[in-house]
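Folding follows sequence. Below is one example:
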Amino acid sequence: MARPKKPARLYQRPDTGEWIIRDAGKDSRTGHRGDGGRSAAEEAFGKYLAQKLSKAALPTEPQALADVSVSLVLTHYLETLREEMAAPERQAYAVKAMAAFWMNKTVAQVDEKTCREYVKTRRSASTARRELGVLRAALGAAHRARILAACPAVWLPSKGKAKPDWLQRDEFAKLLWELWKHKRSRHAARLALCQFYTGSRPRTVARTTWARRDDGPWLDLDRGIWWRSGADEHETVKARRPHGIPPRLAAHLRRWKRVHGGTYIAEHPRHAGQPVMDIGVALAAAAKRAGVKRITPHTLKHTAITLFIQSGGSAEDASDYFSTSIETIQSNYWHHSPTHQARAVAHMVNLGRKNGGEKRPL
């Protein structure tokens, strides 16, 4: 029996570290290398995949669901709406993940049964939920663009309960020292420290430049402001509002700018002028050496918010500083506050007792 042909995929060459697109025995170069180039390579692959999947031109009038392929819908979403996406490589990665399952299906086949089958092919329900969310957005965009006569419902697995993981302050100190004492991971130490003091998402910190710009995050060290997004960037549900820079972090930043210079606050040690987009491997190795639990870069955002709340910070201040909704702060972090339910606990002392009633121990 002939071996089944593998779908197009992104592959990193072990000899050069370059990311290439491997499809049907042919390799196409992306021009990006190493961990720092992975995000850009993912975006290039998504564009390649979208172009490959779509064989027909966009229809000029709304089509029946059975006459439109899922691949055409995903292509339209990536190519037409790319300018409106804050992070198009994320959607491109989701399209890559969905390709093998959906590429030969029509929009008419998008139903609960098929979506449930797709979930079984993914490593977790939460991952599948995020990817099916991209499919839902793509179908909605195609319907608004009058490509589809109707918009089918996309079934999503239930949303799992949030379980933000975090580190104690002394655990983070051990982790940071392990990163700093090895020269090859000092760039990761700088990024980790920035995340600890800002609670920003890893991508926001990684893309931050010393100089002002309109297309991305930047630092104003003179005024002590970290601009999480540029003036020309599109606003998304994941708000990136500016925040003040704590004095201790500001001192580090000024020293790094003087000593290292460059464009970004931490640049790839082997590729000058390129930001370090992923420190996950360095964090995992340092956590193992430090004897603390394994974490991801996003864990540092949870750590910053949790320690802020534990130190007595208000939910309103946390929401403003960390650009996180007040609802998320209250549902995921507020139970760490020393004042959490304090008034309720005080009232429980007098449970069922009327004003001035005799106090008897139960």
